[in-house]
Amino acid sequence: MTETSDFMEELVPDHRLLIDVRTPGYGYLFTLPHTLHDGTPVELYVEFDGQAARINDQGLVSNHLDMAGVDLGKKHIATGWSRIQTSVGYAPDFSARPWELSAFAERSQLSSALYAVADAAVRADGLRVLASQYRPRSFSERVEHYGPALDPEV
């Protein structure tokens, strides 16, 4: 049995089939069923060091926020970002950069740590509403998004 299948067996059984794992280098890239507001799946990079796991989003969320016009350097936004980082509930990966969401956990806690970081990523994605040019979609824009199923002539 390979190491990949070993830790996949440790993950929550109901969600194991929804997770994709690739090996793009020295670690593992987990694609989780969590998604950001635009449908981008949450991907977390995991490296094992013995019985410990370092989990990191590699700046996925902060890149999305930056593209949305959110300035993580503004005091009130930086405070929210910091609170989300600390809300993960695990020690941070000390090699992570300030714009990354991360966790350092025992291998036996991999499943819950992955989901804690993914949950933090989804919550952090909500900071996009603090962008200076943020405008929620109107009702008609949301209805048009669903297409012809709502068209009375169909």
Which helices and strands occur, and which strands form pairs?
Elements: H1 3-10, H2 13-16, E1 20-22, E2 28-35, E3 41-49, E4 52-56, H3 60-67, H4 75-86, E5 102-106, H5 110-125, H6 139-145
Helix pairs in contact: 3-5, 4-5
Q: What this model shows, in words?
A:
By secondary structure, the chain is an alpha+beta fold. It is built from 6 helices and 5 strands; from the N terminus they run ααββββααβαα. A 5-stranded antiparallel beta sheet has the order 1-2-3-4-5, with helices on one face. α3 packs parallel to α5. The protein is globular and about 50 Å long. The model has no long low-confidence stretch (mean pLDDT 83).
**Alpha carbon gap, first and last residue:** 53 Å
Tell me the total number of β-strands.
5
Return Rg in Å. 18 Å
Overall 3D form: globular
Mean pLDDT: 83
Helical amount = 25-40%
Based on helices, strands and strand pairing, what is the structural class? alpha+beta
Order of helices and strands: HHEEEEHHEHH
So how many helices? 6
The low-pLDDT segments are none
Largest sheet: 5 strands, antiparallel
Strand order of the largest sheet: 1-2-3-4-5
The fraction of residues in strands falls at 15-25%
Quick overview of this protein structure:
This protein is of the alpha+beta class. The chain has helices at residues 3-10, 13-16, 60-67, 75-86, 110-125, 139-145, and strands at 20-22, 28-35, 41-49, 52-56, 102-106.
